[in-house]
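NUDIX hydrolase
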Amino acid sequence: MKTTLHIAAACLFDEQGRLLLVRKRNTRFFMLPGGKREPGEDALTALERELFEELELRLGAGALQAFGQFQAPAANEADTWLQADIFRAALPHAVQPAAELEELRWLDTTQHLPDDLAPLLREQVLPALARLQSLAATS
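Predicted structure tokens:
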């Protein structure tokens, strides 16, 4: 039986347009910062909490813009499906890994993608970002 986890995550971009990825301790795959929603939390509240726990990051009011809802298999949990609310924001300053994070990586989404990206990121979010960038380029 598959379990569904409801998560909230963020596409955080630096001034060069690179996407921030994180890898949690004792895991292989890189993913967007964020995490599971607690009972009674909405997606935005969960994401704000997770960003502070993982990166000690607090963004100003209105900084996180809704990007979309996506589904994919979980990278690090067997027989688990993710229902993800994804947001976007510019990263206002450098961050360091905290809490359960082992490593940060900056991804240039225009370059070859590494093999160690979580399915949600590789199969859903990055293609949606590419479509958005393509639309912006034609406007």
